[in-house]
Amino acid sequence: MIGLDRTHDVDLRSWVPSANGHLDFPIQNLPLGVFAPGGEALRAGVAIGDAILDLPAVLSANLLSGEAAAAVETAAGEKLNSLLALGAGPRRALRARLSELLAEGQPERGRIAPLLHEASACTLHLPAAIGDYTDFYVGIHHAENIGKQFRPDNPLLPNYKHLPIGYHGRASSIRPSGTAVRRPRGQSNAPGTAEPVFGPSRRLDYELELGVWIGPGNALGEPIPVGEAAAHIAGFCLLNDWSARDIQAWEYQPLGPFLAKNFASTISPWIITPEALAPFRSTLPPRPEGDPRPLAYLTDDADQREGAFDIQLDVLLVTPGMREAGLAPHRVSASNSCHMYWTVAQMIAHHTCGGCNLQPGDLLGTGTISGPDLQSCGSLVEATLGGKQPIQLASGEERRFLEDRDEIILQAHALREGFATIGFGECRAVIGEAVA
Amino acid sequence: MIGLDRTHDVDLRSWVPSANGHLDFPIQNLPLGVFAPGGEALRAGVAIGDAILDLPAVLSANLLSGEAAAAVETAAGEKLNSLLALGAGPRRALRARLSELLAEGQPERGRIAPLLHEASACTLHLPAAIGDYTDFYVGIHHAENIGKQFRPDNPLLPNYKHLPIGYHGRASSIRPSGTAVRRPRGQSNAPGTAEPVFGPSRRLDYELELGVWIGPGNALGEPIPVGEAAAHIAGFCLLNDWSARDIQAWEYQPLGPFLAKNFASTISPWIITPEALAPFRSTLPPRPEGDPRPLAYLTDDADQREGAFDIQLDVLLVTPGMREAGLAPHRVSASNSCHMYWTVAQMIAHHTCGGCNLQPGDLLGTGTISGPDLQSCGSLVEATLGGKQPIQLASGEERRFLEDRDEIILQAHALREGFATIGFGECRAVIGEAVA
């Protein structure tokens, strides 16, 4: 494992009391984002426990120097694209300095404390302007589950194990956690129906994904080799790629999903850095017997050693009935990032191998990450076998697809013995009013 | 026909001599763009004959007032997005005033002439920052031709005549006319081959499309009704959606084209306004007997009356051999925009019906517009029946797909008796060095 330093030390504690033992944002995490304290202007911040540290204010207080200061200077506006473009050096320098400033024993604590805001009193925004959004399909159990519903005898298409399947998504409709999602209207043509009909989707679904923020980009025509892909990753988030299955089934041939997925996507607003996740990287598991060896442009020793992640992924559901009865959210899925057949480095190498240019602030989705059984499915269409077998909730209710006022909460936690747990924060949204 | 005024008068002449009888940019056109005179800064301009008028300079010279002045004020930077966002009112006011300023008999001619630049001494740039790029598939002969190659017995899928099929494309790799296109590398798996291989595409193709610039956008969750779609169109361009057919065939199942099309798209840099094209709108032809009636959200009386365009579309090819022999470009296709099964208004209404938000500067492609025979195909894969039957060039050469140093030039001209011809300018690019 490369790049571990004292910022990862499990014994490191913060003078911000809520950070110590925090399930998402201990001092070992330090994710970057854009926030607005109630009614004030948007600005860059870092999450620490239940608080957010105002980064431009830290800079103004002369608490940063060198590369760390330069990093925050580029983040002066309402978007972090320029900071992401700087790459790992300034990002690591900023992390190291923030770790010092927020650690127990920091003598400047009295100057820093006033620059903290209670997170509950702030609004979180998209951390960057997303130029292009690409969604992959690297969750192999998901691909198999979906494939079985369409092609029971041949669930995985012949290309699946040769390249990371991906497609372009809609950037304009990506929203941060907390923004209600309107149920889309659209055309569908249920089996046995003579003519397509137009109306609100009746098979609204979530998709549990990880998002990848691109840092430095590449020039058009100049691919990123798989061995250099890590330098282009600025961080990670949770991504709910909301999907209208009835619209999707009718529209997706021959050019892929369109309106079924472009009405909204929700992301967790904090950028979890590669540095924070360094302790949770792991060796790729061997490919199953008989699987093809990836072509050379998708193979790299370092990626084989460090390309996998061990991140626990959960999907929670709150129905209006549960909300009114004061019941806790029901966990409808527990999955893990290890179920990715391709690594993020392979996704980036493939995306750019023909010359396509990535830009700072582009977002890649992994595709739905399902585990091998019904309790680890990353979408309802999988967990309910296409809506045939409803899931039973602790409240006594059941669901085949999402109903109005249902809320979906995605969570991600990286856990490893001997290290502080790193969380992604929440990616949540309520199904709101249908599109009129 | 609505909205014709004296700016459309065929007898209107300009004091810029090259404008009169110009095949693309007579005074009746007045397309908007972004240009840089040799070595100088980028700025907004309007094409007039063989010249470009510097719009900020016209504003500085106090030659504009009211809405026309406001329009140019918003176009102060290097991109026209804010101007596009203003919509039809300011755009029409600017057109009316520019028509006056450039017309014969204009008393201020002496003050305006110094603000003209020779187009041949300028570089043209993308006119706007393209947020999202969506490509449709509304050329019905193209859909049939491609469908026949994959499904000879069932070329059009069941959804085709019920909705305008579309998918999301890559915005970052769109370049203005004149930028060389690098042949992409990628995976392909030719029929009869045991394993996929990685290398330069051997089936590189062009696609003849129209592009649509979005003006005012819509809020997320608030669809644009088909009857209001026209107000969201800022203008049109030519679009070459370069395609690597070997990469496409292997990768496109199940989520659609990805690397086969994201390595480059080329557009003509001038925004041809709806006002310039107003005389060339026409009643939609009746749907063929037996075709389904579109659902209500795709039907509007005004769109039925004015939704079609009569624009002649040409594809010219120059091979290195022709270039060296000094031969004229060979016309490999003559098509027409009337071969669109869906109107632009229907594309916009469909795109947004589920709530997806469009933004000023978004680009929509129509998809390849082929005519009914081999001489009017909008791509080589159609014209050569999938590479089986090469096209013969006047130079004695033949082509199945594009070879290195071939150049493709797309042209568009709106022609109608009693009106000046409106051209789009060129959309050209040479196939350059392969991606390394």
Structure in words:
Two copies of one chain form a homodimer. The longest helix of chain A has 15 residues, at 88-102. In chain A, the strands form seven sheets. A seven-stranded mixed sheet of chain A has the order 7-6-21-13-14-16-8, covered by helices on one side. In chain A, strands 9, 19, 20, 24, 25 and 26 form a six-stranded mixed sheet that branches. In chain A, strands 4-3-2-1-5 form a five-stranded antiparallel sheet. Chain A has two domains: 6-125, Fumarylacetoacetase, N-terminal domain (SH3 type barrels); 133-432, Fumarylacetoacetate hydrolase, domain 2. Chain A is of the alpha+beta class. In chain A, 21% of the residues lie in helices and 25% in strands. In chain A, β10 and β11 form a beta hairpin. Chains A and B meet through β7, β10 and α7 of A and β7, β10 and α7 of B. Chains A, B: Pfam families: FAA_hydrolase, FAA_hydrolase_N. Chains A, B: GO terms for molecular function: fumarylacetoacetase activity. Chains A, B: It comes from Bradyrhizobium algeriense.
Tell me briefly what this model is.
The structure is a homodimer of 436-residue chains. With 436 residues, chain A is an alpha+beta fold. The first copy, chain A, has helices spanning 55-60, 66-74, 81-86, 88-102, 109-112, 140-150, 245-251, 259-262, 274-277, 301-306, 320-325, 344-352, 380-383, and strands at 32-37, 43-48, 51-54, 116-118, 122-125, 133-136, 166-169, 174-176, 181-182, 185-188, 197-200, 204-205, 208-214, 233-240, 243-244, 265-267, 281-282, 308-309, 311-318, 330-336, 363-365, 391-392, 398-399, 407-414, 422-423, 427-432.
